[in-house]
Structures are given as structure tokens and as C-alpha cells.
Design brief:
single chain, 152 residues, alpha/beta, Diaminopimelate Epimerase, Chain A, domain 1, four-stranded mixed beta sheet
């Protein structure tokens, strides 16, 4: 009996993954802030912001010293996304900032340019983090991994 082996389709090519991770690393070299990217195919919630909030807590992103972590959440098949910033960064940039960055990422997503959209929004978030939480060589450390987290 032959049982075929099925592999889950990858969301991104190796080069696209590298592009996203490099954008995270470049952004974090300028700030004490932390950025994580979480990608899955389906969103379990009606509101993707609720799912982002759940993932943020599950990844313990609220434990950064300055409460300046940001999660970029994407559910590709459901065509949903959310940007969730912790209290420290949200108090500095406000809701209008997040709404503008969602528009930026959607412009890329509407052209099926997902990796560039994510990398671009990570860069923009990094600029805001730099403005409000600049890198301090003496005290900064990378508090969270820079890899992309993949859900189901």
C-alpha cells in the first residue's frame, strides 16, 4: 500500500521569509522595541484584532521592559490582518498610526505582494519605535525572537 506524503504549502519562499526576518532585524537595531510577525491561514475570530491580542499574550509579548512590542498578524486565506501594539508604543502613536499602517500593508496585499507588504510595514513600525524608543547600546537586548511565527 502506498500512502502519499502531503506537505503543507508554504506561505512564503525562502527568500521572502529572509526578507521579512531581515526587516525585523534592521528595525530592531534602531530601537529597544520588539516586532513579531505571526502568519496563519485562517483566523479563528470574527475580529482579527481579537486574535492578534490572543497571540500577543500567548507569545508573552507584554513582558518587554518598556511595553513596546508590536505584533503583525496575518491570516492569509481569510484575508485578515491586524497590528497590535503594546501599551507603551500605543500610547505614543495612537490609533490613527495603526490605521495608516494597515492601509499601507493592504496596498501590497491587494497586489498579492504579501512579503513586501509585511516587510514594509515592519520597517514603518520600526521607524515609530525608533522615534519613541531609540536603541541604547548600554541597556538594550533582544527580548523576543526575530523569526516569523507560523500558525495553522
Amino acid at each position: 500500500m502506498h500512502i502519499p506524503f502531503f506537505r503543507r504549502k508554504e506561505f512564503f519562499t525562502a527568500a521572502e521569509k529572509q526578507q521579512i526576518v531581515e526587516s525585523i532585524q534592521a528595525a530592531e537595531k534602531q530601537t529597544s522595541g520588539e516586532i513579531r510577525v505571526f502568519v496563519e491561514s485562517r483566523c479563528r475570530f470574527v475580529d482579527p484584532l481579537d486574535r492578534a491580542r490572543e497571540i500577543f499574550a500567548g507569545l508573552k509579548m507584554q513582558e518587554t521592559a518598556a511595553r513596546n512590542a508590536v505584533l503583525v498578524y496575518v491570516a492569509l486565506k481569510d484575508r485578515q490582518l491586524a497590528l497590535f501594539g503594546d501599551q507603551g508604543i500605543h500610547e505614543k502613536v495612537g490609533t490613527a498610526f495603526w490605521n495608516d499602517k494597515v492601509k499601507l500593508i493592504l496596498a501590497h496585499f491587494n497586489k498579492a505582494d504579501y512579503a513586501q507588504g509585511i516587510a514594509g510595514v515592519v520597517t514603518e513600525i520600526g521607524k515609530a519605535l525608533y522615534r519613541h524608543f531609540p536603541y541604547d547600546k548600554g541597556t538594550d537586548k533582544n527580548e523576543l525572537p526575530d523569526d516569523i511565527v507560523f500558525g495553522k
